[in-house]
Give the backbone structure.
Amino acid sequence: SLISDFISAQSETLTDLTAQRVACSASERVKALALLEDCIYHQNEVLLADLHKFTDIIITQLLKESPIREEAITSINEVSSQLMPIEIASPLAVALYELLENSIQHAFTDTVHANYIHVTFTCEQMEGQSETRYRLTVKDNGKGLPNDIDPQASETTGLAIVHTVAERLSGALEFSSENGTSASLVFTRSERI
């Protein structure tokens, strides 16, 4: 919270509008990550996080800033309540925030009254291997990605951050614009989280 307050205070002294917007966005990202603190638990001297709880909190926060009425967006949270190591949960929380913020801010119009965002986090044991594949997906039924944006090119700050998270987890990003937008972060681990 202190870092977010510092960034906000500094942004007020900037005269360039683009710099002010960037600073405000950075402040919001820091605030979102700070919300993860409410979802962290200690277990046998290990820090674990509940991403299901974090998803609920962050969706509630983001809907308050939605350009359309928040009651016009239904959220479906199918993220496991299983506690995850903070080393994995922290980058996933950053990706979750970016993908949800993008969806809530840009996917929907006031003309459609049945909007939804569906968030899932699944894991599956890979057949014949000791690895487990994890998939975080944020899907909406909005208007889809604009034609001039290539999600694999990291042209926007939010997508660049999600790409960085994917690299940190040695994962990959998958996008689909069929019936809205679906973004998935997929990574594998040799041990089950």
User: Anything to note?
Assistant: The chain has a mean pLDDT of 84. Strands lie at 40-43, 46-49, 73-79, 84-85, 115-125, 132-140, 172-176, 181-189. Residues 86-106 form the longest helix (21 residues). The radius of gyration is 17 Å.
